[in-house]
Structures are given as structure tokens and as C-alpha cells.
Structure prediction request, 104 residues.
Amino acid sequence: MTVELGGESSGADSIGEATSRILELEAELEAAGDATTAEDSLQELRQTLHVWVDTVTAVVATPGMGRVVLIHKNGRESRISSPDLPMLLSKPARFSVQGTGEAD
Prediction:
């Protein structure tokens, strides 16, 4: 279990608590994890994530289930469970006025 902290700010305590809690849960499952809030490390990880996201060829967002499935160029799927991401990726519902086809 590795925790790398940096850039302490007003929300740092809650972020530190969240990362520690996640790492402890993973350790209970005998799976080691790494966490960082250090800006240099975060920049490097963000770059890696951008490259990974650029391989996405399709997205299935299911807000009601709190899930997003990313389908990559190689056909593999990445499933993300999140209370926020599916809502960010979904378009708001539009209801048309009956018979006119125009939105309210």
C-alpha cells in the first residue's frame, strides 16, 4: 500500500481520508494499491489517462445504474461505477408537445 501526498489544501484532509480508506479496503482483499495527490505525479497520471481515453470508440452511459461502459479500439470494455460520470455524459430528456414535434 503506497500513499503519496502533496499540495496540502483545504480539501486535502477529506481526500487523504478517502484514499486511505480505499487502500485499506483493497488491502483487506489482499490487493495492493497506490494513491497520490502530489501534483507532479497527478500530471503524469492525467497524461496516461488522456492517452487511454483517446482509445475509446463508444460510450454507454446508464445513469439509473450509475455506470459507464467504455469500448476501446481493441474491443475491450472498461466499466466505471460512478454517481456523477453517467449524468455528465447523458443528455437531458426532451419532451415534445404532442402533435407538433416541438420541445416545451
In short: The longest helix spans residues 12-28.
